[in-house]
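Lab manual, section 2.4: Encoding a predicted structure.

Procedure: take the sequence of the chain (116 residues), apply the prediction step described in section 2.3, and record the output as structure tokens. A sample record is shown.
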Amino acid sequence: MKHHVAREEDFGPGEVRTVRGASQPVVVICTDKGEFRAVRALCPHQGAELAAGQVTNLTVSDDPGKYFIDPDATVLRCPWHSFDFDVDSGRCASDGKLRVRTYPVSVEDGDVLVEI
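Recorded output:
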């Protein structure tokens, strides 16, 4: 079932909104490229509300002491323990066992919709 989140023009880059129209709350994220993603709203580690987290790009390293930001890897950072969840796959960047469920998001006639 599709749930209306907001009008596309009312959603800014980095913004996160919670949808509670289903048994599980879901957060919808607008990436810095203006694309929309959706994941389960609770961190699988200890249940933190991911809507209070930060949308950012993943910091990666090829060598010790050398870091860079991957502009193609958007993550939602848990506000409690800083676990980074890839908004495309739901996988945690630092713990291969942790993952949040992802949901399809579409824009139809300017409305952002998430399928739950």
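Check your result against the sample. The longest strand covers residues 66-77.
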